[in-house]
Amino acid sequence: MLLVYRYRVKSNLGLLNKQARAVNFVFNYCNDRHKDALRFDRKWLSGFDLNNLTTGSSKELGIHSGTINAMCEQYAKSRSQKKRPYLRYSGRKHLG
User: Fold this and answer.
1) 3-state secondary structure at position 33
2) What is the largest CA-CA distance in the chain?
3) pTM (2 decimals)?
């Protein structure tokens, strides 16, 4: 017998929407930095390189630094799996 619990997560003052926009901002920032690297004939940025570029932005964005690092790693992994020079930009609430 399986017990299934369903919970509804309520956002206090739009906290989840704010965090979703912050994650999209990080994704788009990684995409912009990679486009700049391609434009100036630099090497492809890895997740480690993107983590170094986003260091210290967690307080400004209001999300945890581990989330930012995971987003940078995910961006680099997705880009290398698809073998594309850059990915499409994420929408306003796309990753939320």
Assistant:
1) helix
2) 59
3) 0.74
